[in-house]
Amino acid sequence: MKKTLLILFAFLTVSNQMVSAKNNTNEETVTIGNEFNKNNFKINLLALGLTNFSFQYERALSRKFSVSMGIRLQPTTNLPFRNYIRDHADKNQLDTVGLDFLNRAKINNWAFTPEVRYYFGHKPLNGFYVAPYCRVSYYNLTWGYLFNDQTNLTHTLDFRGEARSFTFGLMLGCQWHLGGNFLLDWWMIGPAYGSANFNANANADLSQVSQQDRVKLESNLNNAFNSVGNSFNVSSHTTVSDKGVKITGDAPFGGVRTGFCLGFCF
Question: How many domains, in total, are found in the chain?
Answer without folding.
Answer: 1
